[in-house]
Input
Amino acid sequence: MKGPIIEMQAMHFGYPQSEAVFEGINFAVFEGDFLALIGPNGGGKTTLLKLMLGLLTPSKGQITVFNNTLSSANPKLGYVPQFASHIQDFPLTVWQFVSQGRLNSGRHNFWLTRTDKKQIQHALKATNTEHFAKRSLTQLSGGQKQRVLIARALASEPQVLLLDEPTAHLDTSSSLKIFDLLTELNQHTTLVLVSHDMELVNRYANKVVNVNHGLSWQPSKNMNNLEANHQ
Output
């Protein structure tokens, strides 16, 4: 087996003026994982994602991404934040919004090359959003907006995609479509996601970690007892 592409060793973290969130945890993500982070609100799931992304810094221990010590955001990691209703107010088309992912990828700052435009188109096609690329964000449904958020992250060509509750506020049908999309993306992209939807986690994820100020690995096909504790 290849070594982990994201690894935390004896990692400690806490916010100022509050109790520690994590103390001495060990955690690893391997290539090809479809890894779900579950657990109660306030248990540290989003914090764990932000630590992997380099948005937060551990007080002790080490985080490595692709065998390099994490000191800042890594362009090989893509991030899809929690569904943000504020994108409703963005005066942008879908294409313009997705192109931001390319401009923010660290390759350049001010213009799009032919290669960039090709990758943006690829991200739109991969998320089935190309047919409404010219529409305003204000005209989209919740499920369409979530796909657009994923497309923006894909525009930077990440090897790992981290998603924070990608089906929050979506109905069952839209949630299923998002997880079907993620399954397709997982053929070429490693996935780590936060989710409260235990049924979908059980159906789609190949690894499950319960996060509650510590980590415990769970069998993805035996979630009933966790669901009772999670609610």
